[in-house]
Write a structure and sequence with these properties.
1 helix; mainly beta; 18 strands; Umud Fragment, subunit A; nine-stranded antiparallel beta sheet; about 0% helix; globular; four-stranded antiparallel beta sheet
Length: about 220
C-alpha cells in the first residue's frame, strides 16, 4: 500500500487522475486528495480523500468514481459538498451523448487538466442562444415553470430538472455547436463557469456521465 498527499483543486473543478504504474486502469490515482490505497491483485482501487473525489472502484464491473463537488455551479441539483457517482465508460462515441446528460469534462485549455461537472444542452450542429439564463436551441426556448423563489423546472427532453435563475444573469449570446462538440451549461445559470466562457467542448474532453442522469 502506498500513500501520497495531493493538493485539492479550487472551486468545483477536479484535477486529473494519473495512470497506474502497472499499465492498468488510468483511474489508479485521484483528483486532489489525501490518501491513496491500492489493491492491485484484485484490480480494485479505493481512494479516501479530503477533497473533491471520495472513492473510486475499478473492478470487474463498470468503473465508476464518486466525486464530492465543493462548488455551486450545478445548484440546486448538485449542492456544495454533494457526492455524485460518475460512469467512465458511458459513451463510446459522440452519438451516445444526449441532451440534458450531466457529465464530467475537462475544461478546454486548462493545463494541468481540470475537470468540471456540467449539463449538456447543445448537440453538434445546433444553434444555441442564451438570454438572461434562458436557453434556446435552434430557435426553440426550453420550457421553464416556476417552482419557488429563483428556482424553475426546465424541460430539455428526455428530462426535466431544476435550475436556478437570479437577477445576476445579464448575458446574451449565440453560438453554433461544431461537429463533434457539445455546449455545456451549469444548472446555476448565473454562477457557473461553462461553455459561455470556454466554448463548446469536444467529445474527447468528456470523462464520464453522472449515474443519476442516466435514468
Amino acid at each position: 500500500m502506498e500513500s501520497t498527499a495531493l493538493k485539492g483543486p479550487p472551486n468545483n473543478e477536479l484535477q486529473r487522475a494519473s495512470h497506474g504504474q502497472d499499465g492498468g486502469s488510468p483511474l489508479n490515482s485521484v483528483f486532489g486528495g489525501h490518501l491513496i490505497v491500492r489493491h492491485a491483485m484484485h484490480r480494485t482501487f479505493q481512494l479516501t480523500l479530503m477533497g473533491s473525489c471520495l472513492t473510486l472502484v475499478s473492478a470487474c464491473g463498470t468503473p465508476t468514481t464518486a466525486f464530492r463537488v465543493p462548488g455551486g455551479g450545478m445548484e440546486p441539483n448538485i449542492n456544495p459538498g454533494d457526492t455524485i457517482e460518475v460512469r467512465h465508460n458511458a459513451y463510446r462515441s459522440a452519438s451516445d451523448v444526449h441532451r440534458s446528460d450531466v457529465v464530467v469534462l475537462a475544461i478546454p485549455g486548462e493545463q494541468p487538466e481540470r475537470l468540471a461537472v456540467k449539463r449538456v444542452l447543445g448537440l453538434p450542429g445546433e444553434r444555441v442562444s442564451i438570454t438572461k439564463g434562458r436557453v434556446s436551441v435552434n430557435g426553440a426556448t426550453l420550457s421553464l415553470r416556476p417552482q419557488h423563489g429563483s428556482v424553475f423546472l426546465e424541460e430539455a427532453p428526455p428530462r426535466s430538472y431544476l435550475v436556478t435563475l437570479s437577477g445576476a444573469c445579464s448575458e446574451s449570446l449565440e453560438a453554433t455547436v461544431p461537429e463533434g462538440h457539445f455546449y455545456v451549461i451549469g444548472d446555476n445559470r448565473c454562477a457557473s463557469l461553462d461553455s459561455r466562457a470556454f466554448g463548446a467542448v469536444p467529445f474527447s474532453a468528456i470523462r464520464g456521465r453522472e449515474v443519476g442522469s442516466e435514468e
